[in-house]
Amino acid sequence: MSWSCVRDGGLLATAVVAALTIWVAPVFAHASEGSKILGTAGIINFEGSGGGGLVPWAFIGSYGSDDERAVSVFSHRVQTDDFRLQTVGIVYGHRNRFELSLNKQWLRVVPLDLTIEQHVVGAKVRLYGDIVYGAAPQITAGLQYKRNTDPEVAYALGADDDSGVDYYLAASKVWLGAFFGRTVTGSLTLRYTEANQAGTLGFGGGDAELVGEGSLAVFLNRYWAAGIEYRQKPDALTSAREDDWKDVFIAWFPAKSISLAAAYADLGSIAGLKGQDGFFLSIQLNTGAL
Amino acid sequence: MMYRLIHGYLRGRAKTGALLLAFCAMLMMQACASDQSAMQVRAGGDSLYADLGGEAGITDIVDQFLYRLASNEKVVHFFQNSNIDRFRTQIISHLSHISGGPFEYTGDTMRDAHAGMVINQSHFNSVAETLLLSMEDLGYPSSVGNRLVARLAGLEGEVRNLE
Predict the structure, then answer these.
(1) Alpha-carbon distance B129 to B114, whole Å?
(2) Closest approach of A132 to chain B, Cα-based (Å)
(3) A53 close to A83: Cβ distance less than 8 angstroms
(4) B120 vs A67: CB contact, 8 Å cut-off?
(5) Distance between CA A223 and CA A216 in Å, rounded?
(6) pLDDT exceeding 70 applies to what percent of chain A?
(7) Which regions of chain A are under pLDDT 50?
(8) What's residue B22's pLDDT?
(9) Which of A142, A117, A131, A114 is nearest to A56 (CA)?
(10) How far apart are CA A51 and CA A41, in angstroms?
(11) CA-to-CA distance for B115 and B74, rounded, in angstroms?
């Protein structure tokens, strides 16, 4: 099946990924389970980085612990009044130290009847601390190289480039049983970016900016978490205002092999189309230690 | 409410300053949490011991834990040469002690007990999860398991013989 086939059919892409992963899953079933504590691999964000849904957190993606390697595959679906975003991708976590990710995004702009496609390559390294152990938060540095392969809309709105790199520093911590016995996790991310609407509207057209992102979640029990995210956004394009993003989410970790998340996201104004709020869904399949 | 708070923080002009502030708050929250549990342990008047069901509850948990540990391929080799009865007694006594039980723990220190073992974080995680699952088997709410594992997590450096 060629990419052009799924290009305009986000749901089809999800179905393909789901079918592939269900087919591949038994191959990994023989490998021992990854050794991160359930839930502490987080949720891959829509840009392919360990997170988070809208925001990358300091988590290294996949369930591999310090002597293990593991992979996760994921897909997201975001749907607002005028936009449909679809992603598929893969993340490799190396000894809970390095993370590499590949991600493809399709943004369907309904009123214009066109699709903007973007590729994201991400890398992240754990610099200091640990998610669970010790008093210090886990601190990671990461980058996301993005290439928008349909930049016509971006150029029309005043963007300079069809590709760019985001750099970020993230600090996250999981506090076991800290809130009435419930485990709490918090994360802060500082990002240097020139991407407009995360790159879907190109790069540049104004100054690069330093933006802050954050999230807070509570594990209701070992399998369910609920939380909020906030993502400050640059506002470089004078022709189309860009708003900060926020979401309220629930995540379900029924087993280490699969995680699901659903959110209500408020994405504000995008490309001059105001009031873009809607749902956000993500599915992620995780291998055991390879 | 919390949402508005974070919204306000990040919206402010001094973005970086606000983030640092929030970050410090995160660290302080952590410091308070560990202080509190340490104090509770010292005082002996600790609700965790009671929530575990005292000595009888802890004994049940340890028995279930050992049963699960025996089939945990990741870590079972660490325990293969130990005297199971002594090991069982020591764990019961240690869990009682760290959960604020009335008896003094007189067994080996965590460093001595694990001397010569190369314990990765993956092993530590695996044992912690085995304990959580054992407690789940016995119907303990996750809040009790979390609090017990949080105290064990505080000993991670000693168990793994880290500096």
Answers:
(1) 19
(2) 8
(3) no
(4) yes
(5) 17
(6) 89
(7) 1-8
(8) 59
(9) A142
(10) 8
(11) 18
Contact B150 A177 (CB under 8 A): yes
- Tell me the C-alpha distance between A50 and A227, whole Å: 16
Measure CB to CB from residue B129 to each of A38, A171, A180 and give the nearest one.
A38
Identity of the residue in A135, A186, A232 whose CB atom sits nearest the CB atom of B34: A135
Q: pLDDT tens, A132-142?
A: 999 999 999 99
Residue A74 CA neighbour count, 13 Å, CB half: 33
3-state secondary structure of A209: strand
How many CB atoms within 10 Å of residue A100?
16
Residue A37 touches chain B, beta carbons under 8 Å: yes
CA distances to A219, B66, B108, B149 from B62, in Å: 25, 6, 17, 13
Question: Can you list the alpha helix ranges (DSSP code H) found in chain A?
Answer: 3-7, 10-29, 152-156
Contact A177 B146 (CB under 8 A): yes
CA dist., res. A244 & res. A265, Å (int): 11
Closest by Cβ to B143, choosing from A35, A173, A181 = A181
Residues recorded for chain B: 163
Residue B145: asked if its preceding bond is cis (omega within 30°), the reply is no
CA–CA distance, B110 with B124 (Å, rounded to integer): 13
Give, in order, the Cα–Cα distances in Å from A270 to each of A108, A201, A276, B8, B22. Answer: 12, 9, 7, 22, 28
Instruction: Pick out chain B residues at pLDDT < 70.
Output: 1-45
Question: Contact B146/A183, CB-based, under 8 Å?
Answer: yes
* Minimum Cα–Cα distance from A182: chain B residue: B143
B3–chain A Cβ distance below 8 A for any pair: yes
Element holding A230 (H helix, E strand) = strand A224-231
Classify burial at B115, counting beta carbons within 10 Å of its beta carbon; exposed 0-12, middle 13-18, buried 19 or more: exposed
C-beta neighbour count of B123 within 10 angstroms: 22
Quote the strand ranges of A34-149, DSSP E: 43-44, 50-51, 69-79, 83-94, 98-109, 114-128, 138-148
Q: Given A35, A135, A228, which is nearest B6 (Cβ)?
A: A228
Q: What is the CA radius of gyration of chain A?
A: 18
CA distances from A155 to A196, A247, A258 (A): 11, 29, 39
The verdict on a CB contact (< 8 Å) between A37 and B129 is yes
